[in-house]
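Section 3.1: Structural characterization of target chains.
Under the original work plan, the team committed to producing a structural model for every single-chain target entering the pipeline before any wet-lab resources were allocated. The record below documents one such target. The sequence was received from the expression subgroup and is listed exactly as submitted; it comprises 672 residues.
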Amino acid sequence: MRGPARARRWSLALLATGLLLVLLALTLRTLERPVELTLAPDAIVPVAGHAFQIDLKRTLPWPWQPLSDHLGNPYRSALLLFEDGVQLGPPHAEFDAVQQIGHGYLHWGRLLIFASSDGSDPRANGRSYHARLSAGVAHALLLRLANGGTVLAVIGLAGWLWSARAKLAHAGWSGGRRLWRRLPDYGVAALIPSLLSGLALLLAPPLWNGSDSTIWLLWQLEWIPHHPPLYPFFMALVQSVFDQAPQILRTTQWVQHLLSILAITYLASAYRVRWQILLVAALAALGTSFNLFAHGFFTEGLANPLTLFFLGALLRLRRDGLTLGVATALGLTLLAASLSRHALLVLGALPVAYLILLALFSSNQRPRLFTILQAGALVVSVVAANGLITRYVVLQLDAQQTSILGRAGVYRLQEAYQQLPPGERDAWLATIAARTTDPAVRHALPVMAITENPWTGPHEAIRATPELYGHHPDALMNAAFKTFAFAPDPQTAAQWGRELQRALLGVGSPTYCPGQINCLLTATANSIDQVFPLDPRNHSVLLGTGAEFSQAAELYRALADTLWVRVLDDFLPLAPPQRLFLLVTSLILGLLAIALSRDGALAAMILTLWFGALLYALALTFITVVLPRYLSPIDILLWLGNGLSLVAILARGDATARPSLIDGPRAPSVPT
């Protein structure tokens, strides 16, 4: 026994050492220091035209290096360039502009490429040049630390798994036997989602989401961390195997549909009576918009199934209590879901909420406080793991760490600005700006409020504003959005209220996105004949998919006008009156189920799902703008709650069916 125990200790020591090295690398990446450099004339080299360059890499002592722009982080450099004390600009200029007209400079990689103010040779014009910039720990050193730590952690984890191989084999064998015994139940659970996905794959044309779809064909990893890493890596993997758009599209569809089928199967199989399994599977599929988000390049193609896996683990918490298996399933599925969509991290509150509600509603076998604390610790661990994984990926790619929350905030700021009478707008902006002490943020606020094209316009305008040279546009926009968002101002509060209303009651109308299915079809049509033709790159990457022909848009519009789409959209409304009716009806159904069943666990679970829907609506309100497809997780939670309510009502009085509602102890016991 001494040998295996020693091996386990060594394995855990290697794992801990590896993780500490990774944490050290992540911490060092946050360190920056200001630097001022004088550019020696003999180090300046002509490039072409008006452009000259100097290698800045060797100007700083180890381990520092200048923080420069590169493909994955094109606005990282804060370098300011001065000629005889006069600031030059603009920074982040195009190379052609510097070379051909002597305009601006760029700090790219190890090089500073610039032109003098009058196009003369900076080596011989008698003027002095100096730069003010930020330096960070060399990326090569950070990679060595992170990669070395990764290797040690993997070796340690492999050693620990090997030392526990007997227990793992026994658990796998037992799980396999349970899986075999329940194969008929899994078949029932998979029936409806398989039918829906099969019909989509055989009969339905692919769905598109404008430039948000084609970015996954043009660029993948460049969108991290704006998009969490899971979907970009998934698309990069598919593109590493296939190089033609039709193959990439078809493979993506098949993988996403298969994942949706497996997720609904896992969710519904938390029940054991087959009609209940079938009912829950049907309503879960309805909540996912009949798996149609799996039929194109949508991040929901992964996010929705992973959300369903998490909810399946949540139902098993109700069924079995917080056992080791349930805790593992909750942690892994929540982590995977949050790595596909940032906002899904708020659903981590659901296990804790359920256990607290269960303690309030159950008259016996109340969960101990320790169990609730364990669930809370699990959620905190997942949040920490999510942050570490994202930062680790960002370090590996040397990508932008700065959030782009402010880009979504521009829409909010501009809406509030436009709601005011023209004569009051400047005074209102001045009031908001007075709430910050940062002069750069004060200067950025009006630029954000009045510049057209909210997603890219203010970003480019900030970059081109001389007073804001040296500031990261996204960092300024983030700070400006926070200044606006937390201002105790009636106009700001009204905008928050409108955004929350959109998240709860939808953003559609009888003529625009009345329901999710119509919205998917019309968005595809608009993508094909309005969005894709604007960029020639779209045509080249769409070859062979059918979306390169603008005439194809009419097919989708014709489908959107069919009777069956209108009927299906009655269950997935996006227009406020219809969505309010659905919410009220679902609430009545849930309260009826709670009253009739007198089941504390059921009441706790239904209220937990409603709490999750509210949490997600608040997350949409605070961190983004509400788009129709962003409401899909709320649809899933809503229809799962309806499924639980219907099962409880229909099973009332059925002595053979009632035990399956919990399929185990009526309240969680001490974790095993």
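Residues 405-487 form one domain.
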